[in-house]
Amino acid sequence: MIDKQSVIESLRGVLDPEIGISIVDLNMVRDITITDDHVKVKIALTVAHCPLAKTLQSDVEKALRKSGQVHSVTVETTSMSKSELDELRTMLQNKTAKTGAEPRTNVGAGIERLGKREIRNIIAIVSGKGGVGKSFVTSMLACELRRQGYEVGVLDADLTGPSIAKVFGLTNHPSKSPAGAITPIETKTGIKVMSINLVLDDPGTPVIWRGPIVNSVIRQLYWEVDWGPLHYLLVDLPPGTSDAPLTVFQSLPLDGVIVVSSPQDLASLIVTKAVNMAKKMNTEIFGLIENMSFLECPGCGEKVHVFGPSQGEKLAEQLGILFLGSIPIDPMIARKSDEGRIEDYSSPAFQATADKLRLRTSEQVQQLMQGLPIAWAVEPAKS
Fold first, then answer.
1. pLDDT recorded at residue 211
2. Of 48, 147, 175, 206, whose CB is crowded by the most CB atoms within 10 A?
3. Using CA atoms, how far apart are residues 111 and 249, in angstroms rounded to an integer?
4. For residues 172 and 141, what is the distance between their CA atoms, to the nearest angstrom?
């Protein structure tokens, strides 16, 4: 006989596709209505318009039909309120504490760690040197994640060389809400962007600031902005290991970093510094992307290695991190960036990379909930 308790037990094995915990334990199952052999279930999503809602609906239907007593299923979705999300966040934090999983801490006494609010994943895009296309990788990851239906934001933390606003074609100044919070500028596809160039009266004005001012501004661009609920906030960092990257590592509640490299030996050498910085700051490394790996001849399809043979996969193995993919050189990239139309550009390489990133962030949450220490994606190569 079908009753509410048997339905709940059947749903206990259904996991939230992003958090990896039972939807029953997450209090996502709300209303259950049973009429003969038909079951109607309402599921409260943690983020409105979750792109994996259809996956979750399918999993619920399969779990209920598996009992053999349910012949038809209707799954409706709603979204959790802010107070419910706060309760859920507290529950997950308590669960993590009880399992004994060690929270990540950053080096640097006296610097206050800012809160995370309604942002699920905060990921910094880093490199050891300039010129490897870090801002391009940041913007393209944002575009691909947005195409998949995620709520995405981009924080341009490269104060002295900001380019995010330009590639997205943004020129408007951000406004302030009645409460005093800064409202980020949205791109045409709905990506929320904050950059120092959007605040300056003249984007050509050089930012000539000493370290303490840089630190303060980066913190303000994150904390004083009303990002709202986001699946991903991508932070475009300046190259190197100076004040600005250090501020992000110490101040923002990062979930992890993505490292960008290029085929040259020099780039690989300096990128290693960025990886070692992340390790010293005890920050998870989601993987490495090699940009400008090759140029494909439009006539014959031959791959030309303009900057030498690709080394991304080998470098990732040596550093003990996941290789997220190789990005080819495409003249269209520069054209779309100059026109402020980067959202019109799409690449199968970035689609695959965004998929790997989504799976990696999901695995990290599951590791924490199971009481496991955050592990490297692969074992470092033995010397």
1. 67
2. 147
3. 10
4. 23
3-state secondary structure of 94: helix
Query: Given this model, what pLDDT does residue 215 score?
Result: 79
Residues 155 and 218: their CA atoms lie apart, in Å, by 9
Half-sphere exposure of 69 toward its Cβ, with a 13 Å CA cutoff? 12
Question: Which of 80-89, 151-160, 180-189, 343-352 shows the lowest per-residue confidence on average (mean pLDDT)?
Answer: 80-89
Cα separations (Å) of 360 from 139, 261, 336?
19, 19, 29
Side-chain-side CA neighbours of 245 within 13 Å: the count stands at 23
Report the alpha-carbon distance of residue 233 to residue 361 in Å, rounded. Answer: 12
Q: What does DSSP assign to residue 342?
A: G
Check for a shared fold between 4-81 and 119-351. no
pTM: 0.71
Name the CATH architecture for the domain at 119-351: 3-Layer(aba) Sandwich (3.40)
Q: What's the rounded Cα separation, in Å, for the pair 2 and 180?
A: 53
Which residues are CB-contacts of 254 (< 8 A; sequence separation ≥ 6)? 122, 123, 124, 235, 248, 283, 284
Token pair for 170: 């943004």
Q: How far is CA 8 from CA 23, 29, 33, 65, 146, in A?
A: 10, 8, 12, 13, 33
Across the chain, the runs of DSSP E, i.e. the strands, are: 29-35, 38-45, 72-79, 119-126, 152-156, 175-176, 182-183, 185-186, 192-195, 230-236, 256-261, 285-296, 303-304, 323-329
Cα gap 168→338, rounded to integer Å: 9
Give SS3 for 120.
strand
Given this structure, which CATH class describes domain 4-81? alpha beta
pLDDT for the residue 260: 92
- Taking the domains of the chain in order of start, what are their residue ranges? 4-81, 119-351
**3-state secondary structure (DSSP) of residue 196:** helix
Over residues 105-121, the mean pLDDT reads: 66
